[in-house]
Amino acid sequence: MSTVLVTGGSRGIGRAACLAFARAGYDVAFCYTRDGAGARETCRLIEEAGAGALSFCCDVSQEGQVEEMFASLLGLSVLVNNAGIALRAQIQDTSLSDWNRLFAVNAAGAFLCTRAAIPRFLRRGSGSIVNVSSFWGETGGACEAAYSASKAAMIGFTKAAAKELAPSSIRVNCVSAGMIDTGMNACLTEAERAAFAAGVPLGRAGTCEEAAAAILFLAEQRYMTGEVLRVDGGAFL
User: Fold this and answer.
1) So what's the pLDDT on residue 197?
2) Mind listing the pLDDT tens digit for each residue in 24-61?
3) Which of 9, 27, 115, 139 is the most buried (most CB within 10 A)?
4) In order of start, what are the domains of the chain with their CATH numbers?
């Protein structure tokens, strides 16, 4: 059976991705940082779907923790770099430590996990990596400069890694998520949510399950690499 590792799998898009892969026949490993109760619930749901579940408490911005996590994995066929944090602040109110923390988790975390996964994929003779970026990484978001820049970095990393790893039969793709109904958007007021949805051609936020379906699709498409697949209800149009 194939194994997937999903970073940030205790809730939201990460949990939905874990369940999508479990239902597709994968054993599922995932990591989380603080939400132990959420991680236990994700494990329960994965096992309920008939798959093996393994969870790690791991901050993907910490090199040692990432290396320890990968050392505990017996096999790997797919890596989903989903772990991410956000910050809503004007540029002049964003500290350097805020900026560095977003890049450490969102961009460096994807780099560290990808670097750790490559030797395993090389031994296997193939592999698939899906990075979860954001609509704001393509268009930029006012009051979200640090978040937008870190997600843009993930897109650039996706394309560079896809070119570098393709000769080794390792594919690297990216989901560019629009407004998805997750806890990350809990800071938005109902009026703000309605205003954003009004600017989306499909007229609503996306679901975690819709984003997860795109992640699974990219993971399994054998003749796609370097692709940025938008799941945004047409917001980029």
Assistant:
1) 83
2) 999 999 999 999 999 999 999 999 999 999 999 999 99
3) 9
4) 3-231 (3.40.50.720)
Alpha helices in 4-108 (DSSP H): 12-23, 36-48, 63-71, 96-102
The whole-model pTM stands at 0.96
**Is 26 part of the annotated catalytic residue set?**
no
For the chain, helix, strand, coil in percent to 5 are: 50, 20, 30
Predicted confidence (pLDDT) per residue in 156-189, tens digit: 999 999 999 999 999 999 999 999 998 777 667 7
Choosing from 26, 32, 147, 223, which is the catalytic residue? Answer: 147
- How far is residue 162's CA from residue 150's CA, in Å, rounded to a whole number? 18
* pLDDT one-digit tens code per residue, 111-148: 999 999 999 999 999 999 999 999 999 999 999 999 99
The contacts of residue 51 (CB under 8 Å, 6+ apart) are: 21, 22, 23, 25, 26, 27, 28
